[in-house]
Amino acid sequence: MKLGTSRREHAEAGIKKIKELFERYRKQARDERHNVLTVMKKLSKVLPEDQVKLMDSEINDLLKDSEKVAKAACDAKDAELKQV
Predict the structure, then answer these.
(1) d(CA 32, CA 19)
(2) CB atoms within 10 A of CB 81
């Protein structure tokens, strides 16, 4: 007869939740990038092409960096929960 959940089950549930949150973050970042690219396309009619390309590369770099930070945080928490 099982009365409650074990620490391992709690840890597995926590890991699953962390992965879900990370995937939600990645989807949200993709959506925001799409929105920014839409605005950039409109701006390309007004601004010089080299300036638009520069802004595009800066935005891509920022998104990549933020995803790396989020992934590192996710992996750290995942490792922490696996130790339990």
Answers:
(1) 20
(2) 19
